[in-house]
Amino acid sequence: MVSTTVSAYDVAAAVLDPELRVVTIGDLGVLRDVTVDGAHVTVTVTPTYSGCPAMDVIRSDIRRALAGAGYDDVEIVTRLRPAWSTDQISPAGREKLAAAGIAPPGPSRGPVALTFRVRCPHCGSPDTEELSRFGSTACKALWRCRACTEPFDHVKAY
Predict the structure, then answer these.
(1) Which residues, in sequence order, are CB contacts of 89 under 8 Å at separation 6+?
(2) What CA–CA distance (Å, rounded) separates 117 from 11?
(3) Which of 23, 37, 113, 154 would give a disulfide with 27, using CB separation of 3.0 to 4.6 Å?
(4) 102: exposed, middle or buried (C-beta count within 10 Å: 0-12, 13-18, 19+)?
(5) CB-based contact 69:31 (threshold 8 Å)
(6) Distance, CA of 16 to CA of 141 (rounded, Å)
(7) Contacts of 12 (CB under 8 A, 6+ apart)
(8) Looking at residue 38, what DSSP letter applies?
(9) Bridge partners for 74 per DSSP
(10) If we measure between CA atoms, which residue out of 61, 48, 49 comes closest to residue 16?
(11) Burial degree of 149 (CB within 10 A; 0-12, 13-18, 19+)
C-alpha cells in the first residue's frame, strides 16, 4: 500500500549517498526529478560523474526505500545532461559535510573549477594544504590544516 503521508520525491530524496554517508542524494543534487503516474514512479538521477561507481548502490537504495513506502513499480532514469556540478549541493548538504569534518566545495562557476582557499572543517582556518588530489573516493581529495594539523577530506569542485 502506498504511503499517503510521504511523497515519492521525499522518500527518494532521503536516500543517503553511499560514499558521503552524511548527505542524501537530495542534498547532493543527484536526484533530479520524481514523477508519479498512477502506481508507476519514475526517478531521474544524474551521477556526480559518468563513471561513478556508487550509482548501482544509489539505484538499489532508491528502489528499496520506495518499496518500503509502498511504491513497487519504480523506473530509474539516468541523465548525464545537464552534467552534475558541485554547485548543486544544497546549503544543508554543505553544512552536513562540514559538520562531519569534510570540507564542502566552493563554487565551480566557469569552465574550470578553481579552489583558492579550502577552510578546515575542524577549526575554520584557511591555512590548509592539499596532500593528495586523490582521497578515499574519486570525488574527494586529502587535505591537512596547518593550524590544527588535522587531516580532512575535501569534496572536489566540478
Answers:
(1) 23, 27, 28, 29, 97, 104, 105, 155
(2) 36
(3) 23
(4) buried
(5) no
(6) 21
(7) 25, 26, 31, 34, 43, 62, 65, 66
(8) T
(9) 41
(10) 61
(11) exposed
Q: What totals of helices (H) and strands (E) does the chain contain, helices first?
A: 4, 7
Amino acid at 138: A
Is the pTM higher than 0.85? no
State the Cα–Cα distance between residues 157 and 105, nearest whole angstrom: 5
Tell me the three state secondary structure of residue 93: helix
pLDDT in tens, the chain (158 residues): 555 557 999 999 999 999 999 999 999 999 999 999 999 999 999 998 888 889 999 999 999 999 999 999 999 999 999 999 889 999 999 999 999 999 988 766 655 555 567 999 999 999 999 999 888 787 889 999 999 999 999 988 77
